[in-house]
Amino acid sequence: MTSTLLIVQFVLAIILTITILLQKSSSIGLGAYSGSNDSLFGAKGPGNFLSKATMFLGLLFVINTVALGYIYNQQKMKSAVDSIKTDTLIPTTPKSDSTAPAAPTNAVPSVPTIPESK
C-alpha cells in the first residue's frame, strides 16, 4: 500500500511541476512549448484550464502526502519486539535434575531486613 502511494506521490510531483511550469508567467517560461494562443484551449482557455488543473493536482498531492504520513506513523508505532515469537524463546518445562534435592513445598523465602539508622 505504501509503495503504491509513494509511486503516486512521485508521479503527482512530476505532473504538478509540469503544469506549474506551463502556466503563463511574466516571462514566457516553458509556456512557449505549449503553443500559441490558437492552441487547443483557445486564447483564454490555457490559463484557466491550467490553473484549475494545478489546483486539482495540488489538492491530490496534499491528500496523498497526509495519507502517506498517517500510514508511516502507524507503522512506526509498531515495535520490533511485538513481532517476536516468545513461545520459541522460553522453554515451557525446565528439565529436572534427579540428583538435586527437592525444595520443601511449605518453605517461605526469607525477606532481607534493613538495619535501622540512629
From TrEMBL:
Region (Disordered): 92-118
Pfam families: SecG
Molecular-function annotations in GO: protein-transporting ATPase activity
InterPro entries the record matches: SecG
One BP term from GO: intracellular protein transmembrane transport
Primary location recorded for the protein, binned into one broad class: membrane
The organism's place on the tree of life at top rank: Bacteria
Known role: Involved in protein export. Participates in an early event of protein translocation.
UniProt name for this protein: Protein-export membrane protein SecG
Gene source species: Halarcobacter mediterraneus
Organism placement in taxonomy: Bacteria, Pseudomonadati, Campylobacterota, Epsilonproteobacteria, Campylobacterales
